[in-house]
Each structure stands twice: as structure tokens, then as C-alpha cells.
């Protein structure tokens, strides 16, 4: 895991002892290769997952084609694919192309997420480093955090109306709590030795917060960002239930009103795939932004 | 001439339920430049408390710590600290870690980089300046910790079991490195360990501490470190009769001071 190089000698005190007991040419590996005894759950599961997915798709295809289940409840895979093509061209109820639905949902989720990033992270860090900030923010956040967004959606509508503001605020609230909690936990996780080290090198309190506490909290904050964007997508459909005319969630709800099960399934698959791609993107960013995560 | 003086230092921890722990009792110690004081003792003897007080991480109940005529009231860059867990910043490269303190104190970029590279060369890591710290070995991380503490050019180097987590071979290498750095810089060194051999090898002034309450039980004046500087042969120094005799004597003192330990 560590140590790509041998230990460097201390100021040439000790002469390198290479060659003092040279073992001759390295022996060639013989016999079969072995690995350690396995622990439960060890090994790659990729192949099994691929087989499972293919199996489920095949079951769907066979079941619908043999008429085990009515078309209204579960259309054939081909119909779902066709509905994707139709939706792409805007050839569905509402008349807007899929890309436009997608684009609006993306704007809502990202606007809310970015708003949460710039507010929740400072709040969480403040909660971690300040007794006063923790005292102020802890009760409201802990109260609303476990509430389902659908529970306070009516209140949001009463306060902010039915336009974009209400939708973005609903998603924003869903993103805010996990992000603030993660930033707070990250701050709490800073090693006291790192803080003491910075102080003993002449850093001020604010320098310690800015140059030690916040960087040290970054791995936790990234985890929080991944959770937050997941919550954001989860809340999207709820937000788009309110008088939306466009958006992936609205598209699915609208299609269900017209019993277009194929469009519903297609919409669900699109939301799922986009959420998954988001998470991959976040992981990619995470690996570059906090490469030390889990390695110190 | 700088000087570190610890006079009648006592520390009482406030425990839960109003109980207090008498962690340090009437500790007196004076360091001049070039002194290498090693505090040796079983865990719980207050040696880390003593170091924390000198470093300014901890308040003390009674007595005083004075460096250059000024009372120690908090951490400061004239007292460099090397920690047991290296406490480096993993988001910074090796050289950025070394120059961290200079950056905090507003030294300009070329200036601090020059100093940092020079200190890295002192610990034999100039080739690893741009490595991330999680890609170097534990011994190298501790060398970076040494370079980082030296970069601020402190008057006192405080080391809290810096070699405790290292394997025996690496540990001996870094002991030698620390002696060379001490000899070269002639700073005041204060070093904590629970390895008798390490203490004897490094110290000019060895203090053996005993627990409950933590206090200095014995003091020795030693010169095995200077002998190593002269001959550069650690094994010869450690194989010396006098070294072995003192090792047994100190071990005896430590075990006598901790009767509850069934050795």
C-alpha cells in the first residue's frame, strides 16, 4: 500500500550493504500460483451481476411476449424502446422532446444542489468549529431532516407558489441536511495532532480552520455531496408533481394519467440511468479532489 | 543565549465527577542549547503531559515554563513538535508539508520553497519533494515530520515518541538521523520514549519518570550520543559494557517505580 521506494539512508551514515550477501540470480517461480484463504463475500461479483440483469431482461421479454401479463401493466421491452424514440422526437403527450424534459430536470436538481453546496457546507463547518453555530443550527436541521419532502411540500407551495422557486427550494432542502451533516462530521474527524501541529508552526485560529480543518473535512464533504445529489433526484419527482409542465418527473406522472405504461417505464429508466451517471461523475471528481481518502 | 526552564510544574486534570488526576508533580528541568533531554517512563507517568505543557497544547496548574525569559502560554513556532502519528497534511505534497509553517507566517513562495528543500535534503528526502505523503513509507513520513519541525527553525524540538510506530530497523536509522540533526543544529531537544535503549542512545540528559503522580525519579548524564557522533557506529556504542550496564540499571529503576506491573 505504501512505500514505493526503499527507506532513504540517513545522511550516508550507514554504507549501503548491497552485495554483501548476494543471493545470486533470482529463482524462477515454480508450481501453481495461489491466493490467500478467502473471507466471506470475497471476490468479484461483476459476472453474476451481468447474468442477473440479462436474466431479468429476458424474463421481461418472455413474460410479455407469452402474454403472462397484460400490456397495460407491463408493456414489452420493444415498446419501451419505441417510446424512447417517440419521446426523443417529442411524439408523446405534451409534445415536448425528451431532451427538454431532461434539461429542465437537470437545471432544477443542479440549481438546488449548487445552492446547497454553497450554503450547507459553510453551515456544517461552522457547526463543527463553533459552539454557537452548532447551538443555533442543530435544532432546525435535526427537526426537518427526517421529514419526508412530500410532508412539507404543501407548505412550500403555500409560501412560494407553484413556479420554479418552490421546486428548487424543495430539492434544496432535501440536499441541505445531508450535506451540512457531512461537513460537520468531517470537521469533527480532524486529527487533533494536525491542528496542534499547525498551531505549533505559528498558524492562527482562522488559518487552522482554512488550511487544516476544511481540507481534512473534504473527504466527508464529498461523501455528503454524493448523498445529497441522490436525495435531490429522489425529491425531483415530488417537486415536479406541483403544476410542472415539463421535466422527467412530470413526464412520468403525465404518462401515468394516460396509462402510457411504456412511457412511465422509459422515464423511470432514464431517471435511474442519469442518477447513476451522476454518481459515477461524483466518484470521478472525488478521486481527483481527495486522492488521500482512506489512505492515511 | 536561549534557555528553557521548567520550574515546579504541576498538572491536575479535572476528571469527571469532581475527581482530579494529579498528572505531574513538581517537575523541574532546565535545557540549554545542545541539550538532548529524553523523558523515559511507562505509560501514565506524565511524559506526554509534560511535552504538551512545553508545546503549549495544555495549561498547567502550578509552576511555570519559561523560554528565553518569556512564559509559555500557548503553542508557538519557537517550539517545533514532532508527533507520534506523523500528523502531516495528506492534501499537501511532501515539500508543501515542510513549508506549511513558513506559509502560515507569510514567507514568500520562493523563500519558503528554498528552506523546505534544504530541510528535506537534511533528512535525505530531497528526491521525494513532490510525492504525496500517503505514498511514502512510515519512516519517510516521520522524516518529513522532522523536516517540517526544523523548517520553522525552532529553538526547541519537542518529540513525542516519534519512532514509536516504526519497525525496529527503520527506528534505528532515524535515531541516528535525529542525533546528526541535533549535533548539526545544536538546538534544545526534548524527546519522549518508552524504549530504554533509545533513551540511552540519544540522551545527554535522561530523566526517568514514574507515575501517580508523574514526577522525575532519576536523572542521568549520558554521552552515548556524542560517542556515536564521533565514531558513527551505532552498534559499537550500543554493545558497549557501560551501555548495557546502564540499560539494566534504568530498567530496574522503571520497574521499581511501577509496582503494579508484573514484569
Name the CATH architecture of the domain at 88-289 in chain A.
Orthogonal Bundle
Q: What is the SS-derived class of chain A?
A: mainly alpha
Give the strand tally of chain B.
Answer: 10
Total of DSSP H or I helical runs spanning 4+ residues of chain B? 10
Mean pLDDT of chain A: 86
CATH superfamily of the domain at 88-289 in chain A, by name, is MetI-like
Residues in helices of chain A, as a percent range: 55-70%
Q: How does the major sheet of chain B shape up? A: 6 strands, mixed
Quote the distance from N terminus to C terminus of chain A: 10 Å
User: Gap between N and C termini of chain B, in Å?
Assistant: 44 Å
Radius of gyration of chain B: 18 Å
Radius of gyration of chain A: 27 Å
Q: How much of the residues of chain B is beta strand, in percent?
A: 15-25%
Specify the CATH class of the domain at 88-289 in chain A: Mainly Alpha
Unreliable sequence segments of chain A: 1-20
Protein chains sharing the most extensive interface = A-B, 34 and 47 residues
Biggest sheet, spatial arrangement of strands of chain B: 6-7-8-3-9-10
Helix content of chain B: 25-40%
The SSE order of chain B reads: EEEHEEEHHHHEHEHEEHHH
Helix and strand composition category of chain B = alpha/beta
